Amino acid sequence: MTVSYGPICQIAWVTDDVEATEQLLSKQFGVGAWVRMPNIEFGPQTCRLHGEPADFTAHISMTYSGDMQLELIQPVRGTSIYTEFLDRSGPGLHHVCFEPSDFDTAVRSAQEQGLAIVQQGEMSGGMMRFAYLDGASAGVPYIELGEFSPEIRAMFEHIKKVAAAA
């Protein structure tokens, strides 16, 4: 069975200074206004890292370049896929996100094909689910699969409008 992983909907960087990275991408590359969400908490009841409960906090900042969502992630507390990345390679391109039409089937298919799930979980009371796959074989550190509720999609549309108005 062929599984559709959906379109790439996001490109993300991990940084140790979200404000400096926003400024670089805005000034040097003309990216629109950013919407920053400080201190987003990921708790051990809804997030796993290497199969174990994870408890961490990150600053998240988002914008759009056309229809492509750009995300910046700055870890601020705890151990996560983001702190591991910074420790290993410093700031940089972290993942691309695909939005499959059937999240559970896509995650299962990726595992059956030997792609390890490094971190997974849900946010906002289950309004968003995510799974980060080891993307080294595809030339990117990680590949994220995401499932987004109508409420999260509405937030994304708001961020897209803010970016376009800048």
Number of strands: 10
Counting H and I runs of at least 4 residues, what is the number of helices? Answer: 4
Largest sheet: 10 strands, mixed
Give the CA-CA distance, first to last residue.
44 Å
**SSE pattern:** EHEEEEEHEHEEEH
What proportion of the residues is helical, as a percent range? 25-40%
Alpha-beta content class = alpha+beta
Q: Nearest-angstrom radius of gyration?
A: 15 Å
Binned strand content? 35-45%
Low-pLDDT stretches = none
Would you mind describing this structure in some detail?
This protein is an alpha+beta fold and 166 residues long. Helices cover 28% and strands 41% of the residues. It has four helices and ten strands, in the order βαβββββαβαβββα. It has helices at residues 18-29, 81-89, 103-112, 150-165; strands spanning 8-14, 35-42, 47-49, 52-53, 56-65, 68-77, 92-98, 117-123, 128-134, 142-148. A ten-stranded mixed β-sheet has the order 2-5-6-1-7-10-9-8-3-4, with helices on both faces. It is globular. The model has no long low-confidence stretch (mean pLDDT 93).
Task: Give the key terms.
10 strands; single chain; 28% helix; alpha+beta; 166 residues; metal-binding
Structure summary:
Helices cover 28% and strands 41% of the residues. The chain is α+β, with helices and mostly antiparallel strands. A 10-stranded mixed beta sheet has the order 2-5-6-1-7-10-9-8-3-4, sandwiched between helices.
